[in-house]
């Protein structure tokens, strides 16, 4: 089975395309395992669709299904273009809705689905939080990112069933550290988390559309808000493509 490994600003994925839509939770856990598998934060499987360029299945590393993945959408768009499944500008279907993406070399821009404020400002554990859904739910606190506390993040993730972001405006960039649901650890980048952090910082008057984003990986991304729609842009890398000698029936 041919699979591609992608990194989108440090958030990494295994990607392949097939024809059948089946439950792939177990293959996701197997492929994403960083010791016995390829190793990744998530699995993305592209499927034909009669109306859109493709439909996708997205699984976190623990095999859980997520409605959307911002960085994954950029990697999937690059994969689709590179494998002649779509043109440079494409539309594909996720559980969060239709995503539009544009590929320009190794730079990919994704338009996210409409965001929703889930819970307005509240205090908990010594921090001020908001919860935005930018395709998946995100808790965000604006603080010194050195205050990132993995144990607290784990507790908040469990209590609110959401990803957890600590964000800070520093030297003109929005720095974001994210504890990701379904990876159950801090990742090197989280696209929907960076966009949720942008919204909270915007609510506080700290940022404007076009601000540069800096995830844990240090790679630079950009978020834009046009007509109240979120776009985010950054590089993706096809680290390698491999033929896996696994039993193909595991994948199909
Ligand atoms: N872990 C997230 C999905 C992936 C989001 C993230 N990787 C992104 O780039 O948006 C969740 O289960 O809600």
UniProtKB/TrEMBL annotation:
<comment type="function">
    <text>Catalyzes the stereoinversion of LL-2,6-diaminopimelate (L,L-DAP) to meso-diaminopimelate (meso-DAP), a precursor of L-lysine and an essential component of the bacterial peptidoglycan.</text>
</comment>
<dbReference type="GO" id="GO:0008837">
    <property type="term" value="F:diaminopimelate epimerase activity"/>
</dbReference>
<keyword id="KW-0963">Cytoplasm</keyword>
<keyword id="KW-0028">Amino-acid biosynthesis</keyword>
<feature type="active site" description="Proton acceptor">
    <location>
        <position position="190"/>
    </location>
</feature>
<feature type="binding site">
    <location>
        <begin position="70"/>
        <end position="71"/>
    </location>
    <ligand>
        <name>substrate</name>
    </ligand>
</feature>
<feature type="binding site">
    <location>
        <position position="163"/>
    </location>
    <ligand>
        <name>substrate</name>
    </ligand>
</feature>
<keyword id="KW-0413">Isomerase</keyword>
<dbReference type="GO" id="GO:0005829">
    <property type="term" value="C:cytosol"/>
</dbReference>
<dbReference type="InterPro" id="IPR018510">
    <property type="entry name" value="DAP_epimerase_AS"/>
</dbReference>
<keyword id="KW-0457">Lysine biosynthesis</keyword>
<comment type="similarity">
    <text>Belongs to the diaminopimelate epimerase family.</text>
</comment>
<comment type="pathway">
    <text>Amino-acid biosynthesis; L-lysine biosynthesis via DAP pathway; DL-2,6-diaminopimelate from LL-2,6-diaminopimelate: step 1/1.</text>
</comment>
<feature type="binding site">
    <location>
        <begin position="191"/>
        <end position="192"/>
    </location>
    <ligand>
        <name>substrate</name>
    </ligand>
</feature>
<feature type="binding site">
    <location>
        <begin position="180"/>
        <end position="181"/>
    </location>
    <ligand>
        <name>substrate</name>
    </ligand>
</feature>
<feature type="active site">
    <location>
        <position position="69"/>
    </location>
</feature>
<comment type="subunit">
    <text>Homodimer.</text>
</comment>
<feature type="binding site">
    <location>
        <position position="11"/>
    </location>
    <ligand>
        <name>substrate</name>
    </ligand>
</feature>
<feature type="site" description="Could be important to modulate the pK values of the two catalytic cysteine residues">
    <location>
        <position position="180"/>
    </location>
</feature>
<feature type="active site" description="Proton donor">
    <location>
        <position position="69"/>
    </location>
</feature>
<protein>
    <recommendedName>
        <fullName>Diaminopimelate epimerase</fullName>
        <ecNumber>5.1.1.7</ecNumber>
    </recommendedName>
</protein>
<dbReference type="InterPro" id="IPR001653">
    <property type="entry name" value="DAP_epimerase_DapF"/>
</dbReference>
<dbReference type="Pfam" id="PF01678">
    <property type="entry name" value="DAP_epimerase"/>
</dbReference>
<dbReference type="GO" id="GO:0009089">
    <property type="term" value="P:lysine biosynthetic process via diaminopimelate"/>
</dbReference>
<feature type="site" description="Could be important to modulate the pK values of the two catalytic cysteine residues">
    <location>
        <position position="138"/>
    </location>
</feature>
<feature type="binding site">
    <location>
        <position position="60"/>
    </location>
    <ligand>
        <name>substrate</name>
    </ligand>
</feature>
